[in-house]
Amino acid sequence: MKIIGPGLLLFFLTAAAHADGGAARLPTVSIASPNSNATISALKDINGSVKIGELKDSIAKVEVVVSRYIDSNPARSWWDGRQWIQQTTWAPPRIAASFDREHWVVDQLLPIGQQLLSGTYIIQVYATDKHGKSGYAVESFKVDRSPQISFVYPENRSTVTQLNEPHPISG
After folding, report:
1. Which residue has the higher pLDDT, 15 or 97?
2. For the chain, which terminus, N or C, has the lower number of CB atoms within 10 Å?
3. For residues 52, 136, 113 and 37, what is the CA-based torsion angle, rounded to 10 degrees?
């Protein structure tokens, strides 16, 4: 069990049973970027790794779900690849990831610019093998789009007695 975001509780399925009663090998999927609990200002890509023990070539698909909580709107929204939607069903939209034998990435169809507001975001990644068994990973991160300001004049810890000409402020 893992708690992510305001009031969101997730339960993880860790093993399934074979017909013979032994533990099945579910795909193992992990999220490398963005890091768990990181604070970012832009979302270039979402990526990680995937495998089933030594059977790295039996992954059929990897899908990513991106959702968010924004301070101004406490309801959860899901990204469908073009826009944020309010979803009330148990099947949120999934974005197909590109993957090879060990790594997966989503670097297109992600929210950018004004679509990526400050708030808490949750990534769920589902890997499904060629037999229909799935494993997943969940991580959260924060987006902070507040403007960053830095002063170039006066220099840090200097004393200014008179300004003879205007100096730019950058940020």
Report:
1. 97
2. N
3. -110
Is the CB of residue 146 less than 8 Å from the CB of residue 87?
no
- Map residue 100 onto helix, strand or coil: coil
Name the CA radius of gyration of the chain, rounded.
Answer: 22
Residue pair 127/119 in contact by the 8 Å Cβ criterion: no
What's the whole-model pTM score?
A: 0.70
* pLDDT tens-digit map of 114-150: 899 888 999 999 999 888 999 999 999 999 888 777 6
> Bridge partners of 140?
122
* Closest by CA position to 69, among listed 117, 137, 130, 22: 117
Tokens of 128: 């499904």
The SS3 of residue 140 is strand
In sequence order, the 6+-apart residues with CB closer than 8 A to the CB of 128 are: 27, 59, 60, 61, 62, 63, 134
DSSP codes of every residue in 30-77: EEEESPTT-EES----EEEEEE-TT-GGGEEEEEEEEEEEETTEEEEE
Q: Which pairs from 146-151 meet CB under 8 Å and 24+ separation?
A: 146/118, 147/171
